[in-house]
Amino acid sequence: MKLTLEVFIIITTIVNNLNFCHAFLEGLYCGQDNCYDVLGLTRGTSKEEISRSYRALARKWHPDLHRGDEAKAIATEKFQLIAQAYEVLRDDESRRDYDYMLDNPEEYYHHYYRYYRRIYAPKVDVRIVIVVTITLISVYQYYASNSRYKEAIDYFVTVPKYRIQAKDIAMDEGIWPTVTSTSDGKSRLKQRGPGNKQKLKEELKQEEDACIRKVIEDKMNIEGAYSKPSYKDILWVQLFLIPVFIVQYIYWYARWIYKFDIKKEPLGLVEKHYLIRKFMNLSEFQWAQKDPNEIDEYMREELWIRENFEPWKQKKDDEIRAKLAENPAYKRYRRYLRKGGPGQITFLDD
């Protein structure tokens, strides 16, 4: 019985010593030193007492107050340890993590995680970062879209075909600038006098260009990447409209099931187009760019019916493969692949 008690005491002492040894981890907080002991404090010390103790010790161990290389080196090391202990204990979150390490020395992996997470984690609220990021993306989206739209308009203004069409529209609507198009109906040439004909021509040219640009902007429907920018396309608005999109989709899907699966109503034109577009894996924009004659062919073939679409698709694929087989460029590409393809060097002639 006496031997068992002695063994128990020895084991308890070893465990306590192990916990004590592992209470301080190298590279974390104050290393192998106790931050409270470094500042001469206890765990119940207030923040004001921590600051006072730090200032007193910092004045005492400042390297500039010590002479000699050895004394200065010792003071520098001591001063850095004091500063480190102060940084750990003056912050509530850091102090709380440090106290947790003292109370739970065996969780050393957890201590490393908490310590480095606090050091390297962003100091700014993550919500602010998200809001600023979304805002910057939205601003860039609108700016880029507006730049592309202006680029498209600038191009169309230089194309003679569109200039002639825009001029005809402007003349039909009575907005085309002329020499007599003043508010009082008098000739601008008479108002300016005979010496200003060149200047009048330049003004008329500028007004004509502005008129053509306005007509093109108002009348031309530009879609795709160069379409007119809209606030609905920016990220912030899209995020706010997500619940609306979800509700619209649920309503559309429920309506489809009710009308066409339960009541067995005949499909309308919009529904037929949707099914054809779905079978072809086309977006709404891609479908809108389709030639009306192609869409008429799809409708004649009744491609909204899966049983009609599959053989039609197979037939089209066979026609494309037959055309490619007769294409000289495709033949050269096939020979290139047979000889090794990309990354291969060959001296064989085609």
Automatic annotation (TrEMBL):
Q: How does it sit in the membrane?
A: Multi-pass membrane protein
Q: Mind listing the UniProt keywords for this protein, alphabetically? A: Chaperone, Membrane, Transmembrane, Transmembrane helix
Pull one GO CC term from this UniProt entry: endoplasmic reticulum membrane
Instruction: Give the subcellular location.
Output: Membrane
Q: Which residues form the J domain?
A: 34-102
Main localisation: membrane
From the UniProt record, list the coiled-coil ranges: none
Question: What is the protein name for this chain?
Answer: DnaJ domain containing protein
